[in-house]
Design brief:
Layout: H1 2-41, E1 47-48, E2 64-66, E3 69-73, E4 77-87, E5 102-113, E6 118-124, E7 129-135, E8 141-148, H2 160-173, E9 181-186, H3 188-196, E10 200-203, E11 220-223, H4 226-233, H5 243-267, H6 271-279, E12 283-285, H7 289-300, E13 303-309, E14 312-316, E15 322-326, H8 328-339, E16 340-342, H9 343-352
Helix pairs in contact: 1-5, 1-6, 1-7, 3-4, 3-6
């Protein structure tokens, strides 16, 4: 029985990893198509592939020491941070800083190891307490503050600079591990895509009638319009108001959305074109379209080894915000497993080639 349960849990983890990767693939494909649309029609107004001032982060990486042993980042690893953006319910006073109201409410790091031909994902809790850079009104660095990881994106214009500020905070959380690429999507796009696919069916996991009268625990309903946003956003007013519970709902929703998107693509030749015109303004990526396409093709050819989460503890902190503190021992081990190799092993590998 234990073996059967273990296989079931592993199967579930792999399905979730596939689902999260599929989300990136879906919007990556839309982004790529939007770039091609722009070339021929000049109507695309999203942001893609800013000029090459995004330095290769691996050029800056130093080796790290853990328990008296030196490690270095594996050259074969490539990463992309996917951000789902939503309006901040408790906007900060701007003061001398440069602010917008978009939080990074959904954070998933795609990790591709080209040497091992594997792909994994790390679902990061947006409530994670992190060192966040404060940007001044001219975009200058005003130092760091300790706050929720989601709030890193609220500094800056809400576009490239805010995405990069979030990448910087996640990178710092992961002990300066390189993050080469990012792709952000505002949550407003969820409602648009939800209705375009004909609604998304979900099972309500708990009593959510305080959010919507139709959200009765255990009921199976098809979400339309604002219901989709309520389902993936809701936290305040629920008995289980942790972000972990919301992350589980997001996974369920994305799993159902994935199936509906690809069904629509298979039966409607015009579906992708409609999505391009309706969603292009909600996407931002540092990748050029050809870079993103290459990255996603590489990921789709890899073996999916599962989804990782960071263990830790959630408490109510200042301003009644939830604060998630990672388990440092587990976090360090996760970082070593996914990104690093002992320096002596890297030297031996280089000697063999």
């Amino acid at each position: 029985m234990r073996n059967a349960r273990g296989r079931s849990e592993r199967g579930r983890a792999i399905r979730i990893a596939l689902l999260l990767l599929a989300v990136v693939l879906v919007f990556g494909a839309i982004l790529f198509a939007a770039h091609r649309w722009e070339s021929s029609h000049r109507t695309y107004s999203g942001e893609i592939g800013e000029p090459d001032d995004w330095l290769n982060p691996k050029e800056e990486v130093q080796t790290i020491w853990v328990d008296g042993r030196e490690y270095r980042v594996r050259d074969s690893v490539e990463t992309l941070l996917f951000m789902g953006l939503d309006a901040d319910e408790q906007p900060e006073e701007s003061g001398a800083s440069y602010n917008n109201d978009l939080r990074a409410d959904f954070l998933m790091l795609l990790v591709i190891d080209k040497a091992a031909n594997t792909c994994s994902t790390v679902h990061i809790d947006r409530d994670t307490m992190a060192n966040v850079t404060v940007l001044g009104v001219a975009g200058q660095d005003l130092g760091t503050t300790r706050e929720q990881l989601a709030l890193a994106h609220t500094y800056g214009s809400g576009r490239f600079d805010s995405c990069r500020n979030t990448v910087k905070a996640v990178r710092d959380l992961l002990y300066d591990t390189p993050i080469e690429h990012f792709l952000s999507l505002t949550m407003d796009a969820v409602q648009i895509l939800n209705d375009e696919v004909g609604g998304v069916p979900v099972t309500i996991p708990e009593d959510m009638t305080a959010i919507d009268a139709s959200f009765v625990e255990g009921s199976r309903i098809t979400l339309y319009g604002e219901q989709a946003l309520k389902f993936v956003r809701a936290r305040s007013g629920l008995e289980n108001n942790t972000n972990r519970a919301r992350m589980e709902r997001q996974r369920q929703y994305l799993n159902e959305l994935y199936g509906k998107v690809f069904w629509n693509i298979s039966v409607d030749d015009a579906f992708s074109a409609r999505m391009i015109s309706k969603l292009s303004n909600y996407l931002v990526s540092d990748c050029r379209a050809d870079q993103l396409q290459s990255l996603l093709e590489t990921a789709s050819a890899c073996e999916f080894v599962g989804i990782e989460t960071i263990a830790g503890e959630s408490v109510v902190g200042e301003n009644n915000r939830m604060e998630f503190t990672p388990d440092e021992e587990q976090l360090v081990q996760l970082i070593l497993d996914l990104f690093y190799e002992p320096v002596e092993a890297a030297a031996e590998s280089a000697g063999e080639t």
